[in-house]
C-alpha cells in the first residue's frame, strides 16, 4: 500500500567528463536535458532530466572525486515532504532498523548532512541528505556481490529550500520530452535469491510500508511521486533467477538493476545497465 511519508525522488548516474559534455544520442533523442549547476564545494556538477510528476534523473560528473566515494555509479534517492523533516525520517528509519538488528543486513542511516548547489541562474539550493551506512567493515569491502563496495540501500534527499528550485517540474520547457516521458514508473533492485526476504524486511523499514508480494520471487513497494500528481511508482525487489541475473550481481553488485520510465505513449525500459560501468 502507498505511504504518504516517503516518495520517489531521483535516480543518480555518474558520467565521465566526455559523457557529461556529449551525452549519448539515446539520451538526447528521448529526453530534454537541462543544466543543474555546480554543487557546494565545487567538487561536482550535474545535468537533470526532469519529469512532470516531480521525479528526475541526475547526470553527475565529478570535477574532483572524493576519496571515499563508492565507485558504483548508479544509485537512487527517496524523499519526504513537509511536515516530515530529515530528522524525523532519520529517527523513524533507525528505530525500525534497530528492531530487526539481526536481519538489517548491517544497514543504518547517517544523521542529516547539509548539501546544496548553485543553479546557472544564481539560485542557492539547499537540502539535507541521509546516507545509507554500512558500519560492518567486512560488509563494505569488495566481495562476491559487492564488487565496488555496497550501494544496495537508497539515500534520501530532503529539501530545505523550495523543492521546485531543485526540481523545476513546474517549467513546461524542462519537462516536455521527445519520448513523451512523464515520470519514474519503477526502480528495480536485484538481490541474491537467498537474501530476498532480508531485503524485503530492510526496505519495509526504509519505506515505512509493506509491499505487494508475488509468487514470482519479488516484492513491490508503491510510492507516490512528489510533484502533487495522482501517480505513483514502485520499488521492485527481485531475486536473481537466471544466469544473466547472477552475472549482473557478480559484475555490478546488489542494487539498482533497471529503471522503467512512464510515458504518454506507454512505459519503456531505460537501459540503466549501460550506465553502470
The DSSP helix count reads: 8
* Unreliably modeled segments: none
How do the strands of the widest beta sheet line up side by side?
Answer: 1-4-3-2-7-8-10-5
Q: Beta-strand percentage?
A: 35-45%
Total individual domains:
1
Structural class: alpha+beta
Shape: globular
Mean pLDDT: 90
- What Rg is obtained from the alpha carbons, in whole angstroms? 18 Å
The major pleated sheet works out as: 8 strands, mixed, barrel
Helix content: 10-25%
Cα distance, first to last residue? 34 Å
- What is the string of SSEs from the N terminus onward? EHHEEEEHEEEEHEHHEHEEEHEE
* Number of β-strand runs: 16
List the helices and strands and how they pair.
Blueprint: E1 7-14, H1 17-21, H2 25-30, E2 34-39, E3 44-50, E4 56-62, E5 74-79, H3 86-98, E6 108-109, E7 113-118, E8 124-130, E9 132-133, H4 137-140, E10 155-159, H5 163-166, H6 172-175, E11 181-191, H7 196-207, E12 212-214, E13 218-224, E14 232-239, H8 243-251, E15 255-263, E16 268-270
Parallel strand pairs: 1-4, 5-10, 11-14
Antiparallel strand pairs: 1-5, 2-3, 2-7, 3-4, 6-9, 7-8, 8-10, 11-15, 12-13, 13-14, 15-16
Domain Glyoxalase-like: 8-194
Pfam families: Glyoxalase_3
Protein name: Glyoxalase-like domain-containing protein
Summarize the structure in short:
The chain has 277 residues and is of the alpha+beta class.
Give a description of the structure.
With 277 residues, the chain is α+β, with helices and mostly antiparallel strands. It has one domain. 21% of the residues lie in helices and 35% in strands. It is built from eight helices and 16 strands. It has helices at residues 17-21, 25-30, 86-98, 137-140, 163-166, 172-175, 196-207, 243-251, and strands at residues 7-14, 34-39, 44-50, 56-62, 74-79, 108-109, 113-118, 124-130, 132-133, 155-159, 181-191, 212-214, 218-224, 232-239, 255-263, 268-270. The protein has an eight-stranded mixed barrel with strand order 1-4-3-2-7-8-10-5. Strands 12-13-14-11-15-16 form a six-stranded mixed beta sheet. A hairpin with a 5-residue loop joins strand 7 (113-118) and strand 8 (124-130). Helix 3 packs antiparallel against helix 7. The longest helix is centred in the N-terminal third of the chain and has 13 residues, at 86-98.
Amino acid at each position: 500500500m502507498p505511504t504518504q511519508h516517503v516518495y520517489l525522488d531521483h535516480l543518480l548516474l555518474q558520467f565521465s567528463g566526455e559523457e557529461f559534455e556529449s551525452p549519448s544520442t539515446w539520451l538526447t533523442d528521448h529526453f530534454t536535458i537541462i543544466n543543474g549547476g555546480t554543487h557546494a564545494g565545487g567538487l561536482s556538477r550535474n545535468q537533470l532530466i526532469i519529469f512532470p510528476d516531480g521525479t528526475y534523473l541526475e547526470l553527475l560528473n565529478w570535477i574532483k572525486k572524493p576519496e571515499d566515494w563508492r565507485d558504483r555509479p548508479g544509485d537512487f534517492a527517496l524523499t519526504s515532504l513537509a511536515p516530515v523533516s530529515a530528522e524525523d525520517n532519520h529517527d523513524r528509519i533507525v528505530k525500525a532498523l534497530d528492531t530487526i538488528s539481526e536481519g538489517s543486513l548491517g544497514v543504518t542511516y547517517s544523521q542529516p548532512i547539509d548539501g546544496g548547489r548553485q543553479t546557472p541562474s544564481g539560485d542557492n539550493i539547499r537540502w539535507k541528505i541521509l546516507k545509507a551506512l554500512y558500519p560492518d567493515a567486512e560488509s563494505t569491502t569488495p566481495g562476491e556481490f559487492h564488487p565496488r563496495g555496497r550501494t544496495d540501500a537508497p539515500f534520501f534527499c530532503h529539501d530545505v529550500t523550495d523543492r521546485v528550485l531543485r526540481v523545476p517540474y513546474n517549467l513546461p520547457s524542462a519537462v516536455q520530452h521527445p519520448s513523451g516521458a512523464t515520470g519514474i514508473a519503477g526502480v528495480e533492485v536485484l538481490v541474491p535469491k537467498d537474501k530476498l526476504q532480508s531485503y524485503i524486511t530492510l526496505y519495509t523499514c526504509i519505506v515505512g510500508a509493506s509491499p505487494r508480494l508475488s509468487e514470482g520471487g519479488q516484492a513491490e513497494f508503491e510510492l507516490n511521486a512528489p510533484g502533487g500528481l495522482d501517480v505513483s511508482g514502485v520499488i521492485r525487489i527481485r531475486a536473481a533467477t537466471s544466469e544473466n541475473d547472477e552475472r549482473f550481481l557478480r559484475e555490478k553488485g546488489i542494487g539498482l538493476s533497471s529503471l522503467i520510465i512512464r510515458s504518454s505513449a506507454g512505459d519503456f525500459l531505460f537501459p540503466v545497465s549501460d550506465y553502470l560501468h
